[in-house]
Amino acid sequence: MERERERRDALLADDMARFAALLADDLVHVHTTGAVQGKAELLGHAGGFLKFLDIERGPRTIRPIGPAAAVMTGPMTNTVRRRDQDEVVTVKAFVTQVWILQGEDWRICSFHATRLVDPAA
């Protein structure tokens, strides 16, 4: 949970070095749009294309998989804007993150976000 808080704080602070330290080198990141990115592409996207204004996490479940891996699932709401536009977009999603222990640090090796459907729509 602490590392996830660090991920959130790094994105809100626009600190891509801190964010990069939380990602495994072989990261697979699936966006709500279906776009799939590796670590380098995600860092360019998060640091060059998007500006994170808020990240809210709902209740999360953590399931350990042995001593060196865990799966975290739960809702997430991102409020962002493209750096070249003023329009603010809020995306509600359900997220599955696979965290692995590399040395003494927990890193995300897989991140998959699925957009939540608004039942009123």
Descriptive notes:
The structure is a single chain. The protein is of the alpha+beta class. The chain has a single domain, classed as Nuclear Transport Factor 2, Chain: A. Helix content is 22%, strand content 51%. It is built from 3 helices and 7 strands; from the N terminus they run H-H-E-E-H-E-E-E-E-E. It has helices at 2-12, 16-20, 39-49, and strands at 23-30, 36-37, 50-57, 61-64, 69-82, 88-102, 105-115. Strands 1, 2, 3, 4, 5, 6 and 7 form a 7-stranded mixed sheet that branches. The chain starts with a helix and ends in a 6-residue tail after the last strand. The model has no long low-confidence stretch (mean pLDDT 93).
Could you provide a short overview of the structure?
The protein is an alpha+beta fold. It contains three helices and seven strands.
Known CATH architecture: Roll
The level of helicity is 10-25%
Instruction: Indicate the mean pLDDT.
Output: 93
Q: What distance lies between the first and last C-alpha atoms, to the nearest angstrom? A: 32 Å
Which consecutive residue ranges, at least 5 long each, have pLDDT under 50?
Answer: none
Share of residues in strands: over 45%
- The CATH class turns out to be Alpha Beta
